[in-house]
Amino acid sequence: MAEALTEQANDIRQKIEQLKASLLAIEQLKTEVLQMHTVNFKMYADIIVNLQMKNDAYCHIKRLDDDTLDHIRSQFDKESGLDFMDRFNRLSDEIIQL
User: Fold this and answer.
1) pLDDT tens for each residue of 55-77
2) Cα distance between residue 28 and residue 40, in whole Å
3) CB of 40 closer than 8 Å to CB of 29
4) Of 46, 62, 65, 79, whose CA is between 20 and 30 Å from 21?
5) 65: Cβ–Cβ under 8 A, 6 or more apart, which residues?
């Protein structure tokens, strides 16, 4: 029982971190709009799509530059894109472990 509760607590902590990252991205976009009076619509669309998909990997995706994101978008449909992100996350985990 304790192990199951620990796992649930860890899942909740992970979701909290994802929500914090999403909130930070939205606040940064708001700051950009207020300071520059312009909107990076590509960034805004990425934020919305990833929030709607409840994408666990969004904290990684937002660190990629526009050219890389455009390349990824052109190479993948939703299913293969999710598979790519799963592999990306596993590699990220391996990098952290190393």
Assistant:
1) 656 666 666 777 887 787 787 77
2) 11
3) yes
4) 79
5) none
